[in-house]
Amino acid sequence: MDSKLLQYMSKYIRQLTKLIGLGKELSSEYLISERRANYAAEDYQGIDYDTYFEPLSYSDLALKSLKWRTQCRSLLHLLPIQNTVYKELLDLLAESSKNKRFSGIQLQEITIKLDALLEDYQDGLLDSMILTIEGESSLNYVEQAKEFFDQEYYGAAGLIAVSALEGFLKSISKSMLEESINDGIKGISNAEEKEDKTVLTKLANQLKCQNYIDKKTASKIREWAKLRNKLAHGDLNISKDLVRELIIEIDNFISSRISHI
């Protein structure tokens, strides 16, 4: 996957880890302060959190909590969680910022959900999210290809679409194998496949060996690679209908793969 994107995501994960640790400290301090200030009785679970009084004696703690919640919201907006269950974290944090009566239990709930998010990242959700981001980025390039096509720049449109596909397949390849495509493809015995040295063809062969795509799809990608080479060399015999079909097929391919990440 893209090294810069991975670097940014790793930075975000470090920040998330830091905020989780701080959230655990703050929630513990909150719960102790609430118990001391609001009730000396043992019936801790019987408190009505809508009516209890937050004393001024720990307003500094409340300010720390507000800063922590703001930092959490800022970080979560940078993470691709919109289509996951973790989107509710943003709703919880937004609601808590409006509510002056913020409790230790609420803070603890948010911290626990942040911790769950971190565990999911560590279990591979991070890779999936990065691939989704890169897939969406590739689709943005496909949209540019469509715009070039509409402006009758058919050659440029085709080249942009295939380049978008190549970038997406590189991301998939790097997520599945430790070795880069530049190190060569192992386990390919078909002499005809070895003759074509384009990166896109190598990617197709590699991903077919890894069962990410089937033989028919690999063959189609090799066709797209050949068409890209013709476009790059200014072949005037390629019709606009063929380029239109190329763009549509690449758009459908990337979209379908993103939906299964």
Low-confidence stretches: 49-58, 178-196
Q: What is the subunit organization of this protein? A: single chain
- Looking at the structure, what is the overall shape? elongated
Note the beta-strand portion: under 5%
Mean pLDDT: 78
Q: Give the terminus-to-terminus CA distance.
A: 14 Å
Q: Total helix count?
A: 9
List its traits:
single chain, 261 residues, elongated, mainly alpha, 2 domains
Structure summarized in a few sentences:
With 261 residues, this protein is mainly alpha-helical. The chain has helices at residues 3-38, 59-76, 87-98, 104-150, 154-176, 191-195, 199-209, 215-232, 240-258.
Topology record:
Blueprint: H1 3-38, H2 59-76, H3 87-98, H4 104-150, H5 154-176, H6 191-195, H7 199-209, H8 215-232, H9 240-258
Helix pairs in contact: 1-2, 1-4, 2-3, 3-4, 4-5, 4-9, 5-7, 5-8, 5-9, 7-8
Describe the structure in your own words.
By secondary structure, the protein is mainly α. The chain folds into two domains: 3-124; 152-258, no CATH class. It is built from nine helices and no strands. The protein has helices at 3-38, 59-76, 87-98, 104-150, 154-176, 191-195, 199-209, 215-232, 240-258. Residues 49-58 and 178-196 have low confidence and may be disordered.
